[in-house]
Amino acid sequence: MLIQVVKSKIHRVKVTQADLNYIGSITIDEDLMDAANIIEGERVQIVNINNGERFETYVIKGDRNTGTICLNGPAARRVAVGDVIIIIGYGFMDFEEAKSFKPSLVFPNEETNLID
Q: Do the domain assignments include residue 116?
C-alpha cells in the first residue's frame, strides 16, 4: 500500500510579492527549494498563518539568495505581502518505507526568508 506523507516543508516564510496577473504558481528562492528538496513544477500546499487559508499550487524557481516568496495568479488573492506561510510538499511511498522516512524541514530566518 502507498500512503502520502510530508516530504518537504519550508516553515514560516514571509510573502514578499503577490502578482495577480501572472498565470499561476508560487515563486520560491531556489536556495530554499534546494534545502527543502522541492523541485520546479512540484505541487505544494500553502498554509497561510495570518488568515487560515489553505490551497495548492505548483512551484517555479526564484532567484537564489533573495528570499523571494511570490504568490502568482489566483493564489495572489489568498495572501497579502507580509503574510507568514508554510509551504508543504507531499510524496507517496510504501507504508513500511514511510515509517522511517525523514522529511526535509527548513526553518529560514523569519525576517529575510534566507537560510542562516
A: no
8, 22, 58, 90: the active-site residue? 58
104 is known as an active-site residue: no
Contact 42, 61 (CB under 8 A): no
Does residue 103 fall inside a structural domain? Answer: no
CB distance 46 to 87 below 8 Å: yes
Average pLDDT over residues 26-50: 98
| Among 8, 25, 90, 104, the one annotated catalytic | 25
Residue 77 is part of a domain; what is its CATH number?
2.40.40.20
Mean pLDDT (the chain) is: 97
